Amino acid sequence: MRKTSGVSLMLLIFLSLCLITFSLLSLSGATADETLSQKSADRTTQYYAAVTSANEIISRIDAALAGYLKKAETADDPKSSYINQCASISALVSEAEWNSDALSITFSVPITENQVICVSLHPEYPDRTEDTLFHITSFETVNTGEWTPDKSENLYQPG
Questions:
Q1: How many degrees, rounded to 5, is the angle at CA 153 between CA 148 and CA 158?
Q2: Cα–Cα distance for residue pair 108/59, rounded to 1 Å
Q3: What is the pTM of this model?
Q4: Are 82 and 68 in contact (CB under 8 A)?
Q5: Coil, strand, or helix at residue 133?
Q6: How far lies 125's CA from each of 69, 73, 116, in Å?
Q7: pLDDT in tens, the chain (159 residues)
Q8: Which pLDDT value is given to residue 96?
Q9: Which residues contact 58 (CB under 8 A, 6 or more apart)?
Q10: Closest CA to 138 of 104, 89, 96
């Protein structure tokens, strides 16, 4: 009988273990990528649902402002009558609030428990029939939750 050193068998076992290890690492990475992609898709869906809600509220505000404009046209001073009527926007659009200092309409729409979309509109009396009734002065995502940093560890201690 011929005695062999078994180098080829050891090499085959080593290569098989390497292939199994790399395949498990690839599977782990793919699972992490899938989880991250799902979270990103969910976050994007929540954001655009909130944007859609904000646009619907803006549409309702626009309709209310159009009604205010029709009422203001019969007044002695239509421009000031229009702005004065805007102060009662909360009666028609419950989400909206009138800011008397800035003469603006504001509202917010939740995205998640820690984020909202804040919108601010400035109503303007139109000079021409094709002018808009308001200008959007702010449409931004705001973090409402408190940020807490990760616990820091002092890993390096110079001697």
A1: 140
A2: 14
A3: 0.76
A4: yes
A5: coil
A6: 8, 10, 29
A7: 566 678 888 999 999 999 999 999 999 999 999 999 999 999 999 999 999 999 999 999 999 999 998 888 888 888 888 888 888 888 888 899 999 888 999 999 999 999 999 999 999 888 776 678 899 999 999 999 887 877 777 777 776
A8: 92
A9: 119, 121, 136
A10: 104
Residue 113's φ and ψ, nearest 5 degrees, are -70, -20
Residue 115 — φ and ψ, nearest 5°?
-140, 145
| 41-79 CB burial, b ≥16 within 10 A, e <16 | eeeeeeeeebbebbeebbebbbebbeebbeebeeeeeee
The answer to whether 54 touches 119, Cβ cutoff 8 Å, is yes
For the chain, the domains span: 36-143
On the CB side of 41, CA atoms within 13 Å amount to 6
Closest by Cα among 86, 73, 62 to 135: 62
